[in-house]
Request: fold
Amino acid sequence: MSGTVLWATVLAGSLGCYVLKLAGLSVPAAWVEQPWVARVVDFVPAALLAALVAVQAATSGHDLVVDGRLVALAVAAVALALRAPFIVVLVLAGITGALVHVLAA
Amino acid sequence: MSAARSQTLRDALGLGLAVGLYGAAFGAAAVAAGLDVWQASAMSLLMFTGASQFALVGVLGAGGSALAAVGSALLLGTRNTVYAVRLVPLLRPHGLRRLTTAHWVLDETTALAIAAPDRALARLAFLVGGGTIYLMWNATTVAGALGAAALGAAAQAALDAVVPAAFLALLWPRLRNGFPEAAVQRRVAVGGAVVALALTPFVPAGVQVIAAVVAVALAGRPRPAERPSPREEMA
Reply:
């Protein structure tokens, strides 16, 4: 992807996200507070973030792959369940990923 | 200074410092996805909403198109529309103030403003929290991006493993007991992951992430009895 396209993506995404914020301050509350709108908005992050976790950890292009990233994700999940701080979770995942990489090579 | 005022300031500053770490993770993820330091920085300055920023670089990193990347960022950005509606009675922004207030509407600033004991403190919490988060988020984005850009090939494997872990950490609080309808959130999350993985071999990269939004249907109909009205929630 060229630098120009990347910049266009960054700027279009930024403008869109700003408009979504401004809309909330500008439209009548009743438009946004419909029960089904609230329902969808409450659950969109869970669906999308979980999809991103899965795609980032277990795919490469069009293939499903198992490598160090998935092992690191499992370690991160255990750390999160034990209520480890964010930085500890990331460091443990990073060390795991590097370790599997070295062992596999 | 009153106890309530200093508590509000402490909460706002504390939260601002805490999100800094996520900024560093975002900077690193952006560079791993192929953005340069300037583009990563522009996102933190202009988009300034963490989950959408992570989603945009996540889709690009997976080889997705610009359209899929922007689409996933906007879907996650709809949250902020609802937060802004809740902030209107507390902040009552008018005219030009509305344009600047909008930029700092986030999960964190909304939580701070709603938790404050009165309207004056809600404004203070929004401004101090928003300001601290904005400064920290942008400073650490640059640090994370520069750090990741300096990594060697071996450390890239570590970074590849850190990015999904950062997404999981972003998702985790929604799945934990104590979050409203945590069991339903978990069901939707599993559904989203399954849909994305099932579609990966067949659709253009990035599209599977947006398609995963259909998993929201697993949440079922709104439950008026369990959902407090906005007024009760704010009290």
